[in-house]
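User: Show me a protein chain along with its predicted structure.
Assistant: Here is one chain, sequence first, then structure tokens.
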Amino acid sequence: MEHHTTYQSYRGLPSLAGVCSFEDAMRPGLSVDACVTRLKRYHYAFKRLHQMLTARITAEPIYELKMGWSLQAHICAEYVAALRKRVAEMREPPLHLDIVPDTFLEIFFDEIRAAPSTEALVLGLYEKAFPALQAALQRHLEDTNPLVDQPSVRLCRLALFELNDILAFGTQAVQGLVDEPARTAAQEWLGLLDNCLLAAGGLDGAEEPATGAVQRRFSAQPYVYDGRPRRDERFQDPYNMGVNAEAFLYDEHFAPQAKVLMMFFKRMREIDVPEMMASIITETSGKPWEYYQEMSRQVWDEARHALMGEVGLVSLGLDWRKIAFNFTWSLTLNTELTPLERHGVLYYIERGLMSNTGKRFEWEVGVASHDPLAATFQDYDWADEVLHAHIGRAWYVPEFANLQEALAYGDHAWSRVMSNWQTWRDQGLTQHRNWWPELYRDACVRWGIEPDKEVLAFSETYEETRADRKPIVAPS
């Protein structure tokens, strides 16, 4: 038996940089090879979760799930990048991170990706996948030497902190969406997921693998991405394009207070940007991970902008269910353009928003309205869009000989689908009802003012114009 002299810390100061006790530092823990093997499995889990969350944003009707998955996909993308970096630090190049670490883990994630309903998907995500990842990271902390593997320990602890938030979201989602019949119907499939993990020796591979065959169920057929956006029943008339928000904002006759109301609508209307960007990410392969990481950050930013709009409308006591938030932009781009063309449209918009008639103007309107919430929202919205323009410059523009060609490509792609937008009314899908006057009257009651007659008289033509969603001043 070994005997260790008890170390007395100097003047009570933390030893070992406060990382751990001497007792914990004396545990041999995981070897570098064993540690890397586990890290690669965490990397694989985060990558698969990122991909499936992103792929389900567009066609998921429930707004709260679209927003939550936008954030969670971004978080997963960040840990994929962090784990890639950590593995590269541990004598690993070449990294071989694109190799599936375990066939049964592959089936596990394939099955969840192919879940045929929202109820099954949330059960798979929040009762199986994320908890298995959480357990694996927690076991890493217990098994590794906390001093020699401190970079991995730090990474695991940070990930566990964010997984707690994700699982809290998931618990509420399951409680709200999964009734007893749905859970009963999913029991056999949930057992299949358990068997996959048992056969894999746990998500981290630290357990003795169970023997026995695992038969695919939902993933027996190849997964097909659904790029058609859907909305839940609260979103009335999603084909409605009867209100031209941009034309209203740039009209000099209207006061900033009324314009702020329209800006809150514009922010929440950005639900369609994650719906569209998710299709770009899902249908674009072969890029460096930094591409997916930065594009996923933008997806979350755009979802966050929609949430800002929701908060703004709620702060005024307004029922946003009375507003027609159209999805024709994401629908048309996703179904009629290639991923590169969609990115071109997105970048063309972002470049236009950098002009004085773009995000700066909206921030100035927010300040002039004396609504501090609007000013703050537009301040951060502006900062985000500057970042997004940089992301486009980094990943879209290099596809072309120069910036001018890249902008022209996006402008042309957008012009091709612009002409189709007026067909929604012709097909009988919408009457293009002008919902603006009713919303404005409700806001005036909240503000305690009389509605402005000139504002009430505002009514955009039903035929869509290039002013809507297109920068007033084209980027140069």
